[in-house]
Automatic annotation (TrEMBL), chains A, B:
It comes from Saccharothrix longispora. This is TrmH family RNA methyltransferase. Keywords: Methyltransferase, Transferase. One of its GO terms (molecular function) is methyltransferase activity. Belongs to the class IV-like SAM-binding methyltransferase superfamily. RNA methyltransferase TrmH family. Signal peptide: none annotated. Residues 2-72 form the RNA 2-O ribose methyltransferase substrate binding domain. SMART domains: SpoU_sub_bind. The keyword Transferase applies. GO terms for biological process: methylation. It holds the Pfam family SpoU_methylase.
């Protein structure tokens, strides 16, 4: 909630209205005050209404109605971007939101929701991002090829995170590859990236598996990939 | 299922019985054959029974009854161990299982379930580990101080993963600290590690946050920490 208000304060979006239960208003007087100070209309609601509005079984009792968080690709992929996370065909909103959180933590400049990826405004995605959807530019591009063109035009090297890639990211990093401006492309948890997508990118790398596990899940793989780039770019 | 049978084949545990639905047996004839070949009793069950046995809403139709996967601390923490993940007070079984999967992928030698951490045999934990509970030694130690003593005796440096630590793991890695035999200690998603636990360990490190996120979730933080050590130890 604080993140939404801070985001609106920068002029990048708007909080239209805040719905709050009596209990939540008592617990979070600072949030209500900040909303009022920002000129946001605050309305009291019942617990039942808050639950219905927040589409969750354990609502926090505060619901903000915001303008969409996504921006046009040209606004997100400005010249000078160094690290971008691209989700391709990620259907699970919790996974998508967790990757947004990881990308934000790793200092990524933007997250691209490409192809048939879930809507970033899905409630589970917003919650899993723990406010990060308000921190960095989110852009949606239905046509993945168009997204890749935009990323290349912004000077980014497109790297598929692919568990079946012959090379791992440590090897690539030792060669200096990860220091380049990079867009990491992540596929769905269930199927990974389609072969033709991998083939259309500039490189594909796997997270090395040193033990008996077959793979990592999407969010943990994204964490290792994005942090490897973030570190290499800052070295 | 294959992991359970492979685990039993090494003599580290036993698969007592396999319950399988008709549909699942048709889909996975190799699993049924492997079980029969291994001398495991295979029993047909209804979909309803399989659902009840597996305690999940989307059962796969195959349920194995296994001996416990956990081993005594002395068996898990043998001299020469280099990388261990320790869960302290982690209540969420899905998070615990995901960390087991990450630890396995990063080549950790063992996972310690310490203090009030969830039971590793919890169905959600086993499922989230995607078979990894069968790949590396899991040990449970109720008394966290006792667990830490055992880890130190095995020659491990105890490092708290603590979002509030003054130093980050990149700084420590550049100094060479992560190449040492290390036990990473992870706290609960909700509260992290208690201050007295952090104070009782040899060091505390945070994952650097380069962007606007407040923190990482448990599994993604564990991925960054464990992979940083795995890489440093192999460099």
């Amino acid at each position: 909630m604080r993140e939404a208000l801070a985001w609106a304060a920068t002029g990048r979006g708007e909080v239209h209205e805040l719905f709050v239960t009596t209990v939540a208003a008592t617990r979070n007087p600072d949030v209500v005050r900040a909303a009022v100070d920002a000129g946001v209309r605050v309305s009291g609601v019942t617990d039942k209404a808050a639950a219905a509005l927040s589409e969750t079984v354990t609502p926090q009792g505060v619901v903000a109605v915001c303008s969409p968080v996504d921006v046009p690709p040209a606004e997100a992929l400005v010249p000078g971007v160094r690290l971008v996370a691209v989700l391709h065909g990620v259907a699970d909103p919790g996974n998508a939101g967790t990757v947004v959180r990881v990308a934000d933590a790793a200092g990524a400049d933007a997250v691209v929701f490409a192809g048939d990826t879930v809507d970033p405004h899905n409630g589970k995605c917003v919650r899993a991002s723990t406010g990060s959807v308000f921190h960095l530019p989110i852009t949606r591009v239905r046509d993945a090829a168009e997204a890749f063109d935009g990323l290349r035009s912004a000077g980014l090297r497109l790297v598929a995170a692919d568990g079946h890639a012959p090379e791992d990211l440590v090897t690539a990093d030792l060669r200096g590859d990860l220091a380049a401006p990079t867009a990491w492309v992540f596929g769905s948890e269930a199927h990974g990236l389609p072969d033709d997508v991998v083939a259309s990118l500039d490189a594909s790398l796997k997270v090395p598996i040193y033990g008996g596990a077959e793979s990592l899940n999407l969010a943990t793989a994204a964490a290792v990939c994005l942090y490897a780039s973030a570190r290499a770019q800052r070295a």
